């Protein structure tokens, strides 16, 4: 089983789920590509999305020039596998990686130019083991690891001064769930979760 999808949106200042609210005199475009496949317990997902919004703040043709441009993109790749290695046992494994970027530009006749850029990359591993051999209960144990090796921020203000920060972070988490059925209409889940973040402070 597989699915391929391409979506493109374009509008002029009308809010939409794909682009969001906008100012008047804005022109926005967004594109999304999705590829998804499943086979014998294996799954794969590829997603890329891009959005651009350009705004002209002049009310009249003779007004001073003032433009802003907003651009962001996100990319995701996920691979997974679900299996039942033994009676009453289920196992789920997932690996994901992605990157993102953000750009903002302001061109103003009075103030000058301003630029901002953010970039990041990340990967994550997620595993869950479930056991349903206990009547009325389903126990799920999970472990997760996420690492963001790239987190960058860069800007140049109206005076031409540049600022740059870079950092990385890691998070390790564990969880234990007990999903038990009270009757045909009610179920209850008790959960414990612990996370250990490791993120250096921003400069």
Protein described:
The mean pLDDT is 88. A hairpin with a 5-residue loop joins β8 and β9 (187-198). This protein starts with a strand and ends in a 5-residue tail after the last strand. It has a nine-stranded antiparallel sheet, with no helix packed on it. By secondary structure, the chain is mostly beta strands. It is elongated, with a radius of gyration of 23 Å. It contains no helices and nine strands.
| Shape type | elongated
What is the terminal separation in angstroms?
48 Å
Number of helical segments?
0
Mean model confidence by pLDDT: 88
Strand coverage percent: over 45%
Instruction: Label the structural class.
Output: mainly beta
* SSE string, helices as H and strands as E: EEEEEEEEE
Largest sheet: 9 strands, antiparallel
- Low-confidence spans: none
| Helix content class | under 10%
Radius of gyration (CA) equals 23 Å
Number of strands: 9
Placed side by side, the strands forming the largest sheet appear as: 1-2-3-4-5-6-7-8-9
Short note summarizing the structure:
The chain has strands at 2-11, 26-39, 42-56, 66-83, 89-108, 112-131, 137-156, 162-181, 187-198.
């Amino acid at each position: 089983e597989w699915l391929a999808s391409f979506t493109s949106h374009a509008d002029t200042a009308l809010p939409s789920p794909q682009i969001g609210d906008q100012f008047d005199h804005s022109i926005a475009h967004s594109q999304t590509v999705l590829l998804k496949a499943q086979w014998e317990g294996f799954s794969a997902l590829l997603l890329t999305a891009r959005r651009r919004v350009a705004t002209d703040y002049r009310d009249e043709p003779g007004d001073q020039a003032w433009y802003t441009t907003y651009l962001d993109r996100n990319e995701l790749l996920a691979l997974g596998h679900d299996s039942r290695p033994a009676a009453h046992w289920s196992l789920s494994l997932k690996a994901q990686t992605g990157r993102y970027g953000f750009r903002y530009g302001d061109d103003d006749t009075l103030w000058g130019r301003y630029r901002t850029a953010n970039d990041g990359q990340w990967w994550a591993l997620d595993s869950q083991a479930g056991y349903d051999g206990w009547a009325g209960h389903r126990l799920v144990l999970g472990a997760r690891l996420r690492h963001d090796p790239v987190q960058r921020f860069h800007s140049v203000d109206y005076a031409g001064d540049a600022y740059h920060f870079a950092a990385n972070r890691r998070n390790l988490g564990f969880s234990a769930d007990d999903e038990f059925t009270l009757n045909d209409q009610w179920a209850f889940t008790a959960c414990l979760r612990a996370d250990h973040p490791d993120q250096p402070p921003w400069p």
